[in-house]
Amino acid sequence: MTTTAAPPQPDPRQPQRVGPRSVRPGRGSPVVRIARWSATHPWRAISLWLALVVGAMALMTVVPTQSMSDDDYGVGESGRAAEMIRDADLGQAPSEVVLVTADGGSLDRAAGEGAYEAIRSGAEGIAHVDGVGPPVWSDDGTAMLVPITLEKGVDDLDATVDALHDATTEVADSHPDLDIAQTGGASIGNQVDERVGEDLGSGEARSLPITFLIMIVAFGALIAAAIPVALAFSCVLTALGLYAVVSTFIPDSGTVASVVLMIGMAVGVDYSLFYLKREREERLKGASTLDAIEIAAATSGRAVIVAGLAVIVAMSGLLLTRDTVFAGLAVGAMLVVAVAMLGSVTVLPALLAKLGRWVDRPRVPGLWRLNRRLGTGGISKRLVRPVLERPKTALALSLGVLVALSAPALGMTLHQGTIDTLPQDIPAVATFQKVQEHFPAERPTIEVVARSDSAADTAAVKGELEALGAQAQRDGLASEVNPVAVSDDGRTSVLRLTTVGPEGDVANEEAVTELRETVVPDTLDGTDASEWAIGGDVADTMDAQDAQRDALPLVVGFVLLLTLLMMWFVFRSGTVALLTTGLNLLSVGAAFGVMTLVFQNTWAEGMLDFTSPGFLVDWVPLFCFVVLVGLSMDYHVFVMSRIREGMRRGLSTRLAVEYGVRETASVVTSAAAVMVSVFAVFATLSMLEMKQMGIGLSVAILVDATLVRLVLLPAALLVLDKRLGKLRVPERRKADEAPKVAVPA
């Protein structure tokens, strides 16, 4: 009996050149058709892209980005209380305060009175200043407060606040023996916005050169390195211009521009890198420039579209929170990802077609040789070999490491940002902290709002509220009680209580809970008040946290389910879809664990220049979760696509995994380096939210591109080998739709 030896498997370590058995790239794919049109009409494609970028920037100039107002933050019972106050026109007028203290501690009363007269004289002549109240002295006589009331109903008070600051500075200069400083909600908001703008400029100034240097190392040629950076930056500008129009309906909370820059630079460079690397690879194998562009479109271009859609789907989950802050962040991120996807399959092929082989000029001699060396995947091959030899051991060890990194996340504490989480070197913030120390009455407020069906019930309801205020003060639930305010129609009454602790004190939240559950129901239920609600600063924070906690399972379930379905649709394998979801969760868990270790403790304060508040800002983990699930899909789609290519070419699972990891090593490493560097830059900014987000995203991408890609994914694929049969089944397509990739003899 004779046997026929099985044909030898191709050596994945050797490049397979395009030969007679290669076929022309797919003509039926929309991505390939768009890339072909752009490559054959480069000037039109480039002109259209420039028109889009310039038009979006013009929109940003003509339509300024709209910021959120206080009304946009209301949720739950506190939102209902705020609406009742607005309807009754009982809202407090905006105000600023000027704090006067002395260097020696004791403030001379005559000097303080003289400073007050100068402050009053300077403020009363400024537009939209409603009045200057009498000076308020602290109990120990060491500080004096000057309240300044601004006009209600004025849309923009920035000019008024700036003029007040100028007047206050003049008084401070004329009284060098006194410390005179202004603060208030508008002052803090303006100075925080200014700091965010400075941070944004600083982030741009640092991330662009760092990214460019990484690209030079990745390509070894200046033009090839400049293309992804320039394209990513143009995507950021375009997205910001488009969001300016969208902000009319979904206003900006103040962080959208930072998020757009961070996400836009990361994905914009990554998507260009994926495409450019594949086009260069095919040219080195002998393909013409046009054929190389079409092959890149049919392979990397498709992966870019899938990865981009995954990010957009993940970000859309934030819309389920029905929170305006999350909605703005989600829309901004989705816009910049969509623009990056569009640029990578339109203007990028046009640039590559126009430049041809000049894209690899001018070369940096040493880096060019290093890049060619790294491009062979020799380092990754050596790193992944032990994993392929002992997959079960590698799987167990890597899982243990990720579980250990994730464990601290079990003790994660979330809280809304407070005055303590803002940079304390902002003058208005530092002054506000001093005001709270000297004047407890300037602490946050609790508002009890009651509405009656008839004005005839006003006296009874007002009396009940006055009794309620006295009881709250006796029980230690409030430090100060203001007179009850009644609307003009007599139907709505508001009792304002001053909290017992400064902003962020847990005792304030306990007081709101006690008032809601016991004191107010016992007082107002059964009276003439037809409706009541408790709002104010503390209640706003509590209700926002409750709403976010309630939405968390819905958002997480939505994101995981849709990304799971996307991976199943792309790879037609439930095993791959489940594996990708599990690996994403492990990366996110590791990031959350590190964030908890860094920001809920004090050991890293000196390195990152922050003061630990003992918690993570509540919106950061949820935002990081949806971003990370989307971004992690980039690498998994790219690596798994190459592994599937190898399996469809007849390679065994082991060789296909080695082939996929080796062929994607340089591009994934470069892309991860870009993302980590961009996110790490944000960890150095002054805003605590940006620091926390930068650390979380950096750690997750680093873990995903190293431990997950080189250890967990290869080991898991080998362990699950028998369940991966569907990856070997080619898609049904016409002969001329198959991508022009090398087929082993």
UniProtKB/TrEMBL annotation:
UniProt KW Hydrolase keyword: no
Entry-linked InterPro entries: MMPL_dom, Mycobact_MmpL
Low complexity bias spans: 15-27
Location(s), subcellular: Cell membrane
Keyword terms, alphabetized: Cell membrane, Membrane, Transmembrane, Transmembrane helix
Name the record gives this protein: MMPL family transporter
Principal cellular location given in the protein's record: membrane
Lineage of origin: Bacteria, Bacillati, Actinomycetota, Actinomycetes, Propionibacteriales
